[in-house]
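Students often ask why we bother encoding 3D structure as a string. The short answer is that it lets us treat folding as translation between two languages. Here is a chain of 226 residues written in the first language.
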Amino acid sequence: MATHEIESVLAAAEERVGRGESLAGTGFRRVVREVKKSPDLAERYGERIARIDDAAFRRWPWLIIPIVPGTVLAVVALLGGLGLVAWSYRLVESGREAMAILSFFAGFGMLVASTHGLGHLVVGRLLGIRFTSWYVASPTKPQPGVKIEYSSYLRSTRTKRAWMHAAGAIVTKIVPFALIGAARAAGLPDWVTWALVGIGLVMILSDVFFSTKSSDWSRVLRELRA
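And here it is in the second language, the structure alphabet:
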């Protein structure tokens, strides 16, 4: 893709987002694919592409939280989830089994919700990829996500980008199986263990059949095929 074509597409994209419109049809994503292939282009156009990407991003999420307070909230949710799982031990000891099960699964839900974004964030930062904010797409899709700072993403390598995308999905799938030992140690009913196994398998199958087409694993495959 010639330099003048890149310049033309980026100018059109800037004009479009400046009017609060979608980037659809501008060729912006085609430019991004080209820039990813060339460190020189990533260095030259990375900041400009990042500004356009950020402006387009801010049009659609239901909620956006800056990266630092968002990360603090995610860590608090993680610790809260661990606390609820630990509390289930006490509840079993005091004979309140139903409350123990409720506490355990509430903690499990908080761990799944918080570890996904934190997985992307921690692995991405270790690999040199930065992030700008946390977001919730909509009230009907409450799973929090973390927004990439696109210039650092473009300057990274395809392998590092792939690992960053995979990290959230991997850590989330580990959670139900990691909690099996906690459920057994707490003395929760056997069906809780089997429920964790079933949830873990459903999550894995969901990734195989859906995420490879439209979510984290599709991005991993995209980077590895680049």
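Translate back mentally: Residues 1-60 form one domain. Keep this in mind for the problem set.
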